[in-house]
Each structure stands twice: as structure tokens, then as C-alpha cells.
# Entry
Amino acid sequence: MTSITLSIFDIFKIGPGPSSSHTIAPMKAGHDFAQEAAHLSPEKLERAEKIEVRLYGSLSATGEGHGTDAAVVAGLMGNPPETCSTDLIDGLHLQKNKSVDPINIGGKAFHMAVGEVIYDKVQHDFPFSNTLVIRLLDKDAAAIFEKEYYSVGGGFLQWKGWTAPERGEPAYGFNSAIELGKMMKESGVSGHDALMQNEKAITGASEEEIISGIDLILDAMEASVDGGLDGEGLLPGPLKVQRNAAYLYRNSCTMDGFAGRFIALLLAYALAAAEENAAGHRVVTAPTCGAAGVIPSVYCLLKRNLGIPRKNLRRGLMTAAVVAFLCKTNASIAGAEVGCQGEIGVATAMAAAMITYAVQEDPVLAVHAAAIALEHQLGLTCDPVKGYVQIPCIQRNAVGAVKAYTAHMLAVLEKPGYFDLRLDYVIKAMAETGRDMSCKYKETGLGGLAVCMPEC
Ligand code: SF4
# Structure
């Protein structure tokens, strides 16, 4: 088996919320389709009359609440997720049945309103639940060009016939936490040096480029927290959810004692980034948009309230990425595949590892903290009410952040020698639990809170 060749920047991606599977990947699909179709022959482009977008599986079931329709159209209009403006997305949502700006493909203008995106079958025969098919049609509705895309979780996009891009071999290869521990023991290399060497070998980027990429990610995380702390009023959608982060943040000053204030701040930071995500604003997948509040909250706490230096925070973020590599490779980070244990659960494990490595620089302890955190998120279902990444998602980020800190404390304060590299077994349990979980609890809106709280 070849070693993991995922990059830190595969896990942490900047883009609009509220769901990496439902917004970032579909926006990439729209953008890719427009670029590919632009290379069609002039004769084919001349015949093309219309663009058709069909959503399947969980994209169909909860795509409306997640804003998938606007995301695909924004992508077709030529916007990649990293730079797509929040104003454009807000405008597309407001004018559902009107074409805002034309979609330009190979110099030809197509007019398409967000409301024309078709919500097709939830149960289907495509190889992945989150499927979307984009077609260029002639006047008889026959396809001139089509592409079948799969949103496979965490903003990753594949398509029919996709093959993984060529990547360099990691300097320190591993596929499991046990292999990682063995490799580090044998080589004597530090955790962060091994990860930096791997990132350089896999991506071909220089150390300076990697550091500046990590800084961009950390800054975007902090911006998502600050955006949420500045936000007031209702979040978009029918649930009438109030933004709460700023209120909680102000109230944290009134808490008695250091511990109370500390937890209140962590909760406020996590709510802030999660509320920004729910508003469809720019966040960082960590590992997904739905879970985009957990790591930014511990990052802000470590930076602002515990004074942990930037160098350690970068190293902590790299360690968090390793936890996501293992979970993605050996289970899943998609709510549509394994439920929320793969999103908030994995984010909690990543955050626990990040805190522990940033504070202790001990990779074994960091992996142990991740195992503790994930162990207590097993079985977590994905059941967003009315398909909006708001209830339970926003508060779930806050609870995940506190659990991450708790896991860090347990790992650090336990008797030395108790810890081990059991993370692999917990990830295996997550994969098995996810396999056995009914599809009602996998981002389809057909079970759990989504049906027990229909009127909220
Ligand atoms: S319940 Fe969890 S997995 Fe589902 S949308 Fe919300 S955050 Fe994502």
C-alpha cells in the first residue's frame, strides 16, 4: 500500500460556507465545467442553448438549505471558491429566479437563474451520494457536452474517469498512527520536521511557500472568528436562528473565575466562525465547512489568551492535518458517508492534537489526545434541521471545541505510560459505525433532529 500523499492544503481550504460538500465542491464543479466547455469546437458552442445542472443524493436532499444552487451558478460564472465574493453569493440567493450576470463560456453568454438548478433523485445509482451532473444542451435538450461530478467530502471534487493527480513520495511515509509513531522513533526526526519534509516532497513547494500558505490559512481562520464576533441579527433561512457569538463574547467578561471565562471565550470563538459559515461567508474547511468553528476557536484561544507563539501554532496546525489525513484515508471526513462523527468528530480530534502539539511538541501525546477526542464523538449523526447548517451544527462546533480542550487535558494529565497509539482503532470504529449508520443520519435530512424538530 502506498503512503498517504495528502497535503495540508487539501484539508484546509478557504471558501464560502455553509458546507464544503454542498458549496465549495459544487462551486469548483461549476468553475471546472465552464473552463472545460470553453474548449469545445466553435460549431458545438454555436449549437449550445442552455446549461442544465442536476443535483443528486444529499446535494438534492439538503442542497437548497446549503445554497448548493447558488454555489454552482457562481462557479459557472467563473468564480473559484477561494476568491468568490460574499456579496455575489448573497445576491444570487436574493434573486433566485432571475439571471444575475450571464455565464460566459468560450465567448458565448448563457443566462441561468439559481432557481433553474434541478433537485433530482435522493436515492440513485451513481457511485457517490453527493453527485451533480452539468450539461450543455442544444435546442432539442440533447446534451452537447456533459460532466458527472462527485463531491466526496471536505470540498474535494472528483468526476467520472477522475484519476488522482501525480504527487511526490513523502519523505516519511505512513498510513496509520502506528506506522507514523514507528517511523518517528526509528528516524529520531521531530514531528513538525517530518511533516514539513513530507509536505515539500508531496507538493514540490518550498518551505517558505508552505509557511506562507499556513499563515494564510491561520489568518483566514482568525478572520472568520472576528467576522462572527462582529455579526448580529438573524442568520439566513427559515429557522430564524439568532447569531449568539458576540453576545456570548461580551458575557464572557462577566464570568467568575479564570476557568469560566476561558470556556466562555472558547465557546464564543467557535460560535463566531460557525455563524459566519452558516451565513455563507468565507471560512476554512477544517476538515469541512460545517466543522469550521472548532479549530479556529482553539487557534484564537491559544494565540490570544494563552500567548502561544506563531511557530508553535503552525506546527499545531500541521499536526491537526495529520489527524485528518488518517481519518480521510482510513474512514471518511464526509457527513454524507459517516455522519457528523466525520465532521465535528474529526475536527474535535484535529483540534485536540493541535492544542497538544502546539503546547507540548510531543507527537505521541498529540495523537493520543486526538484518539480521546474522537472516541467520544463516535456515532454522532448528521441531521441538520431543514438542511441548514445551523441546528445542531453551530453549537456542535462550540461543544466540539470544549471537548477538544478536555481531550488535551486528559492526555496531558494522565499517568505517563498510559497513552498509546490507539487512534487507528478509533478511526476503524468510526468507519464501521459510519457503514452501519442508516442513510437517514447522513446529511439527507430524513432522520434525527431534522425530523424531530420540523417546526423549529
Ligand atoms: S450535523 Fe454535522 S455533519 Fe451534518 S451538516 Fe451539521 S456539522 Fe455537518
In short: Residues 207-230 form the longest helix (24 residues).
